[in-house]
């Protein structure tokens, strides 16, 4: 999954859980929110603190209240501090995506 997110970052794209499932096939089954958090924690566990999370590429597209909770929990688990206000949090994730695209453009 980390590889798929790196590829999306290099391509200056975002993604979704359904796109990742199509791309990865049976390697990524449908997951409950708690499982999504655990998978994304593993994906971004080694992301340096001064770099945006690869999970931002998914978070920016997920706007439901349930999804926002997934990404809020993920960010907290990884010692990030996203805003609690949904509109401000969306802007925060969008900024993370822009930074990711710049960072991975030459990697």
Topology:
Layout: H1 2-10, H2 17-24, H3 33-44, H4 56-59, H5 65-77, H6 86-104
Helix pairs in contact: 3-5
Task: Write a structural description.
The protein is mainly alpha-helical and 107 residues long. Helix content is 61%, strand content 0%. It contains six helices and no strands. Helix 3 (33-44) packs parallel to helix 5 (65-77). It is globular, with a radius of gyration of 13 Å. The mean pLDDT is 92.
Write out key terms for the chains shown:
107 residues; mainly alpha; 0% strand; globular
Strand content: under 5%
Instruction: Note the overall shape.
Output: globular
Main sheet properties? none
Number of extended strands? 0
Distance between the termini: 17 Å
Radius of gyration using CA atoms only: 13 Å
Please bin the fraction of helical residues: 55-70%
The number of helical elements comes to 6
Unreliable stretches covering 5 or more consecutive residues: none
Average of per-residue pLDDT values: 92
Q: What string, H for helix and E for strand, traces the elements in order? A: HHHHHH
Structural class: mainly alpha
Would you kindly provide a brief summary of this structure?
This protein has helices at 2-10, 17-24, 33-44, 56-59, 65-77, 86-104. It has 107 residues and is mainly alpha-helical. The longest helix is centred in the last third of the chain and has 19 residues, at 86-104.
């Amino acid at each position: 999954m980390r590889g798929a997110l790196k590829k999306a970052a290099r391509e200056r794209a975002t993604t979704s859980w359904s796109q990742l499932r199509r791309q990865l096939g049976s390697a990524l089954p449908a997951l409950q929110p708690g499982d999504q958090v655990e998978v994304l924690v593993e994906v971004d566990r080694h992301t340096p603190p001064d770099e945006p999370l690869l999970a931002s590429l998914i978070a920016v597209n997920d706007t439901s209240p349930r999804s926002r909770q997934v990404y809020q929990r993920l960010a907290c688990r990884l010692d990030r501090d996203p805003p609690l206000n949904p509109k401000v949090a969306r802007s925060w994730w969008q900024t993370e995506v822009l930074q990711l695209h710049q960072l991975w453009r030459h990697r």
